[in-house]
Design a protein that fits this description.
- The protein is of the alpha/beta class and 235 residues long.
- The protein is 32% helix and 21% strand.
- It contains eight helices and ten strands.
- It has an eight-stranded parallel beta sheet. Strands 1-2 form a two-stranded antiparallel sheet.
- It binds D-xylitol-5-phosphate and zinc ion.
- Residues 27, 52, 54, 85, 194, 214 line the site of zinc ion.
């Protein structure tokens, strides 16, 4: 078992004295699936706290990634926090199974779910951390009714469905808007961003207020260990 220690360097002191930890969450969507175990071991040993698991159904998004059998394997293989991102229509159909398999966090898209409140409550009741995700075109105002129920807000910074896309710069304003809401009234809620994050836009995203950083290609393409260390150094 690998013990992950977060140093205080990896946090920012906020006004009012509270601290905000930053978390790196590599998305295995960009990994080499024939070498999946080995690549997860590299990111885990290099010190990442989260693993981001992108589940796609070919309906909510055009692509299909992988499902329960793959997730079950990954869960057994690693002790990292399993941050499951459901890009799936009616995600309420799967939360029970996912949490039984060992998901630590389950994030559902507001655009995909008919019963957002019940599903977030169910995730929590079943012992995992609920998250709510919004696509680039969905206004931030839509998540307000659910802020009390979530552990994390995920602001998509590309259209969901594929890795390796370019970061949508306009999303920075949404990140700032969500950060203001969190800081004002929900200081324990995390702010995750996902899509097109690379070393050259990391700083602006951290400055805008993101504190859970998902990144696929920028970690798994090239030298994985060096990539992780470079990210962690700047967080
Ligand atoms: C996109 C997924 C992302 C994706 C990120 O729909 O939700 O998690 O893997 O990949 P990069 O970092 O390559 O944009
Ligand atoms: Zn994702």
């Amino acid at each position: 078992m690998i013990i992950i220690q977060h140093s205080m360097k990896n946090s920012k002191r906020k006004k009012g004295g509270s601290t905000k930890m930053n978390y790196l969450a590599p998305s295995i969507l960009a990994a080499d699936f024939c070498e999946l175990g080995k690549e997860i071991e590299i990111v885990e040993k290099a010190g990442v706290p989260y693993l981001h698991i992108d589940i796609m159904d070919g309906m909510f998004v055009p692509s299909i990634s992988f499902g329960m059998p793959v997730f079950a394997c990954v869960r057994k293989y690693s002790n990292l926090f399993m941050d499951v991102h459901m890009m799936v229509e009616k995600p309420e159909r799967y939360v029970e199974e996912l949490i039984e398999l060992g998901a630590d966090g389950v994030t559902i898209h507001i655009e995909a779910c008919d019963c957002v409140e019940e599903t977030l409550e169910k995730i929590k009741e079943l012992g995992a951390k609920p998250g709510i995700a919004i696509n680039p075109n969905t206004p931030v105002s839509e998540i307000i009714p659910y802020m009390e129920l979530v552990d994390m807000v995920l602001v998509m910074t590309v259209q969901p469905g594929f890795g390796g896309q370019s970061f949508i710069v306009e999303c920075l304003d949404k990140i700032r808007e969500v950060r203001r809401i969190i800081d004002k009234s929900y200081p324990d809620v995390k702010l995750e961003i996902d899509g097109g994050v690379r070393l050259d836009n990391l700083e602006m995203n951290l400055e805008a207020g993101a504190n859970v950083i998902v990144t696929g290609s920028a970690i798994f393409k090239g030298d994985i260990e060096t990539n992780v260390k470079e990210f962690l150094k700047r967080m």
